[in-house]
Design goal:
The protein is α+β, with helices and mostly antiparallel strands and 209 residues long. It has 5 helices and 6 strands, in the order H-E-H-E-H-E-E-H-E-E-H.
C-alpha cells in the first residue's frame, strides 16, 4: 500500500507543470496573385512570391525549446515535403542554432520562412550549422518581400497605426477553453499538494505507532 501511494503521488506531482498560453506568428512562402503592391519591383524579382503570416495560440510549458519546435512543426504542417528532414535545435541567447542531420533541398525557402518566423517571435539570429560550414541570418537576409507585423501606438502620440493586410484565417480567436484548462491545472496542483501533505501525515502517524 505504501509503495502504491508513493508511485501515485510521484505521477501526480510530475504532471503538475507550469504552463501558459502564448501567441506567436509563423511565416510561409506563397504566391502573390492579384491586388495592389507598394513594392512592385521586389515582387518582380521574387517571381511574385512573398512571405505571408499566420497567427497561432498554444499552451506551452517552461521549456524554451517548446515554442521553437512548435513553430517548426507549424511550418511542417504547411509544407511537409520541404521540411522532411531531421534536425537538432540549440538556443543560445537571442540566437537559434539549427543543426540539420541531412541535406535541405529547398534551402532558400526554408531559410526565408524560418528566419522570418523566429525573428518575428523575439529572436535576432538564426544559424544553420552544417557539417562543413555555418551560416547566420537575420531579418535583413530575407530574399522575399514579407508582411511586417506592427504594434498599436499610444493614442496620445496621435500616430496612425497599421496592421498587416493579410487575412489571418487560422487560429485567430483565443481558445474559449483557456480559462477552464487553467482552472483544471490549478485544481490539479492543489490536489497534488493535498495528497503529498496527507501522505506525509500518514507516514508520521505510522512511525508513532
Amino acid at each position: 500500500m505504501r509503495v502504491f501511494l508513493t508511485i501515485f503521488i510521484l505521477l501526480v506531482s510530475l504532471s503538475a507543470n507550469a504552463t501558459h498560453w502564448l501567441t506567436y506568428y509563423v511565416y510561409y512562402e506563397t504566391e502573390y496573385i492579384q491586388g495592389p503592391w507598394s513594392r512592385f519591383d521586389i515582387l518582380e524579382t521574387s517571381e511574385y512570391k512573398y512571405l505571408d503570416v499566420l497567427k497561432y495560440e498554444d499552451l506551452f510549458g517552461s521549456d524554451a525549446t517548446d515554442l521553437t519546435n512548435k513553430m517548426l512543426s507549424r511550418l511542417w504542417e504547411k509544407n511537409n515535403t520541404v521540411y522532411d528532414w531531421d534536425y537538432d535545435l540549440i538556443l543560445q541567447g537571442d540566437s537559434v542554432i539549427i543543426v540539420p542531420k541531412e541535406e535541405i533541398k529547398e534551402f532558400e525557402t526554408v531559410k526565408n520562412e524560418i528566419v522570418a518566423t523566429f525573428t518575428s517571435n523575439g529572436y535576432k539570429t538564426v544559424i544553420f550549422r552544417f557539417t562543413d560550414q555555418e551560416k547566420a541570418f537575420t531579418i535583413n537576409d530575407l530574399s522575399l518581400p514579407y508582411f511586417d507585423l506592427t504594434t498599436r501606438q499610444k493614442e496620445n502620440e496621435k500616430a496612425i497605426t497599421t496592421t498587416t493586410s493579410t487575412d489571418i484565417t487560422e487560429n485567430t480567436q483565443p481558445n474559449e477553453n483557456h480559462g477552464n484548462e487553467n482552472i483544471l491545472l490549478i485544481v490539479g496542483l492543489i490536489v497534488s499538494c493535498i495528497i503529498n501533505i496527507g501522505f506525509i501525515v500518514f507516514l508520521i502517524m505510522k512511525k508513532k505507532k
